[in-house]
Specification:
Layout lengths: L2 H15 L1 E3 H8 L3 H13 L3 E4 L2 E4 L9 H4 L4 H12 L7 E4 L3 H9 L6 E5 L2 H12 L5 E5 L3 E3 L4 E3 L1 H7 L4 E7 L2 E3 L3 E4 L2 H13 E7 L11 E4 L6 E4 L8 H6 L3 E4 L1
Parallel strand pairs: 4-5, 4-9, 5-6, 9-12, 12-14, 14-15
Antiparallel strand pairs: 1-3, 2-3, 7-8, 10-11, 11-13
Helix pairs in contact: 2-3, 5-6, 6-7
């Protein structure tokens, strides 16, 4: 079993039980206790868990989000896969809103051949890329950049002006980038202003589509955007945790593995 697979399984067990122990994990995953300790150390450095004697416990709240530029190099292949899958859900004539995030930028890069699209966004990188795509005739339609206060660390726009502008629109689909997805807390993010914008995007849409690579699954961050029940579709490079399946099916949430 590869290291990344082991770490995903460890996080799944941690999400289910709230704590894990080295010896039972080594038996279940058929590796040495030392290998499990190394995996736990790596996951702690990534902020995914808290190391305790003999194992680890769940980290309830994760801290500040790294700057946008730094995050672009993290899980780049996985984000590209998610982005392509998300872009495939767009239909000709759709009105969509695309959230701030490195995964949503990959989605913007994957929009090809669509006709008569209207795209709203509060992301400078997404707007810039889509403007170039329009010039190159990769798709047809229009792009609306929402106005407001600039966050230079995250290359985003938010605040009261942005909220007032967004109140004027209704869209078919909202593509939401998130800080965490968990069964207990639902969809969460790091920044209050960006989370409020994400919530407005979902409220304005017929369907909210969440984009989340495996590092976001089972994670809780600072502010709640909306519960899992409010999501239409989740797109991830990870498979849906088994213990989530019944809850998602009951509430009509579709999980797509990219």
């Amino acid at each position: 079993m590869l290291s990344e697979e082991r770490k995903r399984m460890i996080l799944d067990l941690l999400q289910r039980d709230g704590k894990v122990s080295v010896i039972p994990l080594s038996r279940e995953l058929s590796v040495s206790a030392e290998t499990i300790r190394r995996d736990l150390d790596v996951l702690e450095k990534e902020g995914k868990l808290h190391r305790v004697y003999g194992g680890a416990t769940n980290v309830r709240i994760q801290g500040d989000e790294p700057p946008y530029i730094q995050r672009q190099s993290q899980f780049a292949q996985e984000k590209a896969q998610i982005g392509r899958k998300a872009a495939g859900l767009i239909e000709d004539g759709d009105h969509v809103v695309i959230d701030v995030g490195t995964t949503t930028l990959e989605m913007a890069r994957a929009i090809q051949g669509k006709k008569r699209l209207t795209v709203l966004t509060n992301s400078f990188p997404v707007a810039s890329y889509l403007m170039e795509s329009l010039k190159q005739e990769r798709f047809t339609g229009r792009v609306i950049l929402l106005g407001g206060e600039l966050n230079p660390q995250q290359l985003s726009i938010s605040g009261e002006l942005c909220q007032q502008m967004m109140k004027q629109f209704r869209v078919d689909k909202a593509f939401i980038s998130v800080g965490g997805v968990s069964l207990e807390e639902g969809i969460t993010d790091y920044d209050v202003h960006e989370a409020l914008m994400s919530r407005m995007f979902a409220d304005a849409a017929r369907e909210a589509i969440v984009l989340a690579d495996h590092s976001k699954i089972g994670v809780n961050t600072f502010i709640r955007i909306f519960p899992l029940e409010a999501v239409g579709t989740i797109i991830s490079d990870a498979a849906c945790p088994k213990e989530w399946t019944r809850h998602l099916k009951k509430n009509g949430v579709v999980w797509i593995k990219a």
